[in-house]
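Request: Mind sharing a record?
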Amino acid sequence: MPASRVEQSLTRHYSFFLQHHQYAVAPPRPALPPEIIVQILSHPTRWLLTHSRSSVRDYVTDEHKPIILLPPFNASDLKLLRRIVFRFRSKDQGFSWDRSSYGTYNGSWTWFEAVVREPSLADMDPTGQPSLGVEPHNQHVRKRWELQRNRHAGTSHEDYEVVFEDGDERMAELKEAMREGDHLELRACAAFAAWVNHVEHATIDVFSLDNLKDGEGY
């Protein structure tokens, strides 16, 4: 039985494909160098926001006052940690005796600190959640960093952002100092009579490498 026109057409197309398919298939690519693979796996596009805590209440302090306390870090947290962003909006009392420093950061005695703290019962409320205790400012502290001073005799609140990121000195110090179960804390500080730190709001965001093992961040 002679082939139909449709069958003849299909046969011609199939024969053409068999003759030329080798040009349609891409040749195998060489393997990527290991250092390139490491860069891809560690690229910031694979960083996930894994902790975020904000305080939107007004703080007025003339001492060292904790305003944000993150939950305790576990071993996986520390291994995958890549970036920490501290943000706050603040000003000092708006006056001082040193008029020559007005509008600068010279002679400013209100500032912010990041603190790595050992775990303690004062860090947890009755439900087991992080709580801002009233312990002395130097108790249970493993390491602290000054983040930012307020503008001297500032007349209005200003926004500040400080970043710890993989590869910089402060992040390396933090990873070395922090142990499993420790907390990260943001403090508003002031020293000497009449110096007051006015904090309108503050935030800590923690970014970590996504965990390919389970397809999610920790």
Notes: The beta strands are 47-55, 59-61, 65-69, 81-91, 110-117, 141-149, 158-165, 183-190, 197-209. The first strand starts at residue 47 and ends at 55. The radius of gyration is 28 Å.
